[in-house]
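Marked as duplicate of an earlier ticket. Keeping the data here for the record.
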Amino acid sequence: MKSSNAFKIALAAAIVAVLAKAFFGSQEMIEPIVYWNKCFLKDQGECEAKKTQEFSVTPAPLSIPQEQLDDLKTRLSMRKPINGGILSDDPWENGMNPLYLEEILSYWENSYDWRREEGYINDNLSPHKTVIDGLDIFYLHVKPPAVSSTTSHEKSIPMLLLHGWPGSVMEFRYFIQSMHKLNPNYEFIIPSLPGYGFSQAAQVSGMNPCQMAVVVQKLMTQSLHFDKFFVQGGDWGSVIAHYLAFISPNEVLGTHINMPQVRTPIWAIPYVYFFHWEDGKRSGLLPLGQFPGKMLNLWPYLFQQATRPNSVGIGMQDSPVATAAWILDKFYSWTDPQSDISKDDLITNLMFYWLTGSQTTAATLYKEFMWSETSAQNIKFLAAQRFAPSVSISDFPLELFSTPEVVVRAHYKHIISYRKEDKGGHFAALEYPETLAKHVHEMVELQLTNS
């Protein structure tokens, strides 16, 4: 027992060391790399042609070749029987539930209809692409009826929506509907992050969340010519939104995040743990004795993707079974069990990884964040600032990471509203879209009223 506890503590210390890597470095802001495409190493003509397309906008309806869908169906039909290993009273104790995985795979093979989803995306979500810093960036552009046939933004309320891992742009499909019920004038821009879905991955190292903030800032201001806009993000999207609001204070009207991630100052840890209580408990944090075990159970995926993303990603690129097992384990672990995410929604999210082969490049974001010297320096610089733009925060009880409200309020300078929700987890836009939409809409109303 003692050796087991010692191992947990040692592993927790190692993970903390990895996380701490991101927060130390120079306090000089690193200028973003201006070109992420390595075409200049292969064909100068290709590179020049790419540069002429910079910030151009073109419709990009999805039309996956039938051969690709047939190949997927063949792989699913030829999958081996799943050996679930040791049986347990809790089928999720050892990771992916083998019985549930088989249920999903069978549905994926025999019932799921990508063409129906593809048609919905093309007809309702208006997929487009643009070129930013040499990369093809895919995004959905959902305009309100008032501006659906014009390029004018005068009557719309533009909002940038940012996803994370292991999500996709499809996390927001019901959130958009809920927002339009509250106000039909919302205009949504939903990009696939570089290296995710149908957006091209950077071909040189350094594409960390701060650099992604630069990319989406250029999407909004240079490709789409918005002067002002709102931002909402969860998971990596909340991190990117944090940076975006800092680097674009004149453009970002307001920011809403549903996974606030801030550093707890070392001096504050004893206070947070032992003296500050919220809702009758110590700041929502685990007892110190449970913390190593929690880290051991929850964070191995982060450690894997922050150190060896290729090792897990390449296998997923070749196997829909591996893709489903790795990603759906997170959806089960990080969501409210009372929420009702359909098999179709789960699989459509998987398809954005499978069809594009982006499993490895998406996972690499963790490594860029943890180990990139550019990332470390940018984070250190931003952490030294106070969060100047206004922010609204939804705190869902089953969120992956829990940051005490007292720490969040000490970090963000201008919190418009902080709401503790009574249900919901990590994928809030997909789990409880109406709940999230209500708070985001309130933030927008407050900002527009006060502006």
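See parent ticket for discussion. DSSP finds 19 helices and nine strands in the chain.
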